[in-house]
Amino acid sequence: MPVTTIAGRDVHVDDEGFLTDPSEWDRELAAALAEAIGIEMTAEHWKIVEFLRADFATEGETATTRRVQAVGGFPVKQQFELFPKKPAKKMAYIAGLPKPRGCV
Question: What DSSP string describes 65-87?
């Protein structure tokens, strides 16, 4: 598994750059990941990221946009506004989680 340096430290990633060890994640790393893909984190961004991490901890897989809406209460439209074009992929990337099932 590849190792890369982000925010001044080594982290384990897959071939697409997603963290493979969610325990290596923290908010500083998330901010660096977001910046790398052109996302400026706001309080609304952090709410979704925190939901994703909490949901992953209980469910064992990364929530899809549909689940983020149904369980997290964040409408899909809002997800696209905050994380344009591919919200599920971008949210998971910033949250330090695997790409959601079904994402290409």
Answer: HHHHHHTT---HHHHHHHS-S-H
Burial class (CB within 10 angstroms; exposed 0-12, middle 13-18, buried 19+) of 68? buried
pLDDT tens, position by position, 74-101: 999 999 999 999 999 999 999 999 988 7
From 36, 92, 103, 104, the catalytic residue: 103
Active site residue 65: no
Assessment of whether the complete model's pTM goes beyond 0.85: yes
> Cα separation of 87 and 91, whole Å?
6
User: Which amino acid would we find at residue 60?
Assistant: G
